[in-house]
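Structure (tokenized):
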């Protein structure tokens, strides 16, 4: 199982942005040091809180000192860009990182960005789907291609610099369950970024949504790979649940106020008439299916999701600033120390050895006599 991060990023508008960006880059370096597999950064242009206008530039800077982790965009708002430019820039990043780039695209979910670019909601998904089809053709074709679509038209375009990864760099797409997007994910073998939450856009169960991915893959002559499925959530870990809640409750409410202001309030409500003033940190975490607690709570959540979905390839944690950088770093370290190895098997033999030794000790058969000398039971 892979473990990843998604960063919007989200910063208090009162802050010095230059310092905030440095913290963002430092978090990529920390994730790399702790063995996380992927780190994704989003694109935003307005609203004051989500502050990264060019994620590939931040990822390129991070790559100078993050030498192992894969680096992705989550997401480029595809309707804002010519598909050629997205493909070319990410191929360049793929070479700069020796094959660690992932191109994540989406329709744009930030209402103020849509207003900024005068985008019609009804055109966003068709534009996204057309852009993905064009990008895949550009990445896969060694010859020039032409395209006459609804939103883009061109003749004889070819990527001079194709991706370092062959046959092409991987693509990623977030989707809460839009059937057309799930079809795209399956058809092009994309990484599916699937948000958790009890209040979602899709009435389908997780298993039903995965069936749509499989259907799209089959239609394209592919086999859908559950390893490309990421479940996205927030987690904050501490030594005790009480400490975890004390650390993040105020920050969680502050961030939720912003999210409600851009149209996400329905996803936090316990009932249709509930107002923001009635939200509590506990109700927010419950509706969004977040983990605020200990490493054992995180392990139980992941195991529950595995049973619910039938299996998936990774967990993506949303990077936030609910509390200080030091406490966030400590939470991430606890996840890497105690949660990751449970699902990647790195400490399985250690735990088995300890169980065997502990059982012998309880049974009085540790292999030592009363004087502490090894006996012939030691190897039995």
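Design, position by position:
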């Amino acid at each position: 199982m892979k473990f990843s991060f998604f960063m919007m990023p989200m910063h208090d508008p009162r802050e010095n942005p230059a310092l905030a960006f440095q913290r963002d880059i430092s978090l990529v370096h920390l994730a790399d040091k702790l063995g996380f597999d992927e780190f994704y950064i989003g694109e935003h242009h307005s609203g004051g809180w989500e502050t990264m206008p060019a994620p590939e530039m931040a990822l390129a800077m991070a790559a100078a000192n993050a030498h192992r982790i894969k680096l992705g965009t989550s997401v480029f708002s595809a309707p804002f860009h010519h598909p050629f430019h997205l493909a070319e820039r990410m191929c360049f990043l793929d070479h700069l990182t020796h094959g660690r780039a992932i191109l994540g695209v989406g329709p744009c979910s930030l209402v103020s960005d849509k207003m900024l670019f005068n985008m019609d909601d009804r055109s966003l998904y068709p534009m996204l789907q057309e852009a993905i089809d064009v990008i895949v053709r550009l990445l896969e074709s060694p010859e020039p291609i032409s395209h006459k679509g609804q939103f883009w038209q061109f003749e004889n375009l070819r990527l001079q610099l194709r991706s370092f990864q062959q046959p092409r760099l991987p693509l990623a797409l977030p989707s809460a369950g839009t059937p057309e997007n799930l079809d795209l994910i399956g058809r092009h073998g994309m990484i599916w970024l699937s948000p958790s939450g009890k209040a979602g856009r899709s009435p389908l169960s997780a298993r039903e949504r995965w069936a749509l991915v499989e259907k799209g893959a089959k239609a394209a002559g592919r086999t859908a790979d559950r390893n490309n499925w990421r479940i996205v959530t927030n987690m904050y870990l501490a030594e005790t649940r009480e400490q975890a809640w004390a650390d993040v409750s105020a920050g969680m409410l502050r961030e939720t106020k912003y999210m409600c202001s851009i149209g996400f309030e329905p996803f936090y409500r316990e009932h249709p008439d509930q107002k923001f003033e009635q939200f509590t940190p506990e109700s927010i975490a419950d509706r969004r299916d977040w983990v605020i607690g200990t490493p054992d709570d995180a392990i139980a959540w992941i195991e529950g999701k595995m049973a619910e979905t039938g299996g998936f390839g990774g967990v993506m944690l949303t990077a936030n600033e609910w509390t200080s950088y030091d406490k966030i770093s400590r939470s991430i370290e606890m996840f890497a120390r105690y949660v990751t190895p449970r699902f990647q098997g790195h400490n399985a033999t250690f735990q088995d050895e300890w169980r065997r030794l502990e059982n012998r000790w309880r049974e009085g058969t540790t292999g030592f006599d009363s004087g502490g000398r090894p006996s012939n039971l030691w190897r039995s």
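Reviewer-requested clarification: The chain has a mean pLDDT of 94. Residues 2-354 form a domain with the TIM Barrel fold (CATH 3.20.20.30).
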